[in-house]
Amino acid sequence: MKRLILAAACAFALVACSNPEEERKAQEAAAAAAKAQQEEKAEGVAKQYEMAVAAQDWERARIHGGALLDQYKDTDVAARIEPGFAEVQAKGDAARDLRRMQGLWQYNQIPVGSKGMQVSAQIYSKQRVDVDGSGAKPVQLVFRDHPEWKRHAYLVLQAGDFRCPQCKVQVSVDGGKPIAMAAWRPKTDEAIAMFITDQKALWKLARKAKVISIEFPVKAGGTRTAVFETGGVDANRMPKWWE
User: Fold this and answer.
1) Does residue 17 have a pLDDT over 60?
2) SS3 state at 97
3) Which end of the chain has fewer CB atoms at under 10 Å, N or C?
4) Residue 24 CA: distances (Å) to CA of 8, 12, 19, 29
5) CA 23/CA 194 separation, integer angstroms
């Protein structure tokens, strides 16, 4: 009986029982077929990657390239794209960060009777700031173009107040040396706002910088600093004479 079972097994696996060389070749052929299948799948992802690179769609290229190197890391296709992927990844990260910063800005257009449109661009500080001991709250930076009041740039607080009938604020660009800029607080209780006199210069800094910080005096004593990630501003949303 045992001999019959052995014979039957050999009948179903004749190569394995009678010819080790053929078994080795069969295994190599199976491995080659599996590798070819992996290479084919990897090539499909690589085409998507290369199309995204050609279109300079760096975020999409980063996703496809990362997937290729993760899922098909042992393929020839992965070896082909790997040398240039670090640069693409860096561009993808930068594009993603730019998109995030673009989302920080708000733009408004409001009709002002028959006089035209009030246009504004505004952004909140990266971190909340405690200006009077009541707790940290957002600080807002606003650029406004009004058909009657003309151009202004100003900070807005939600609590506390500025100590600035006439004063100076310190503006730093991307962590650089502070620049002193004249500012003033209007005599009104309607809003806690402080205007920066050279609004065009501040707008220029906001457009060119990734981050600006503004140090301002407060009524509670001393100064506070608000940091704004301005790098995603769309200058086209404001009138051309702001340039």
Assistant:
1) no
2) helix
3) N
4) 21, 17, 9, 9
5) 84
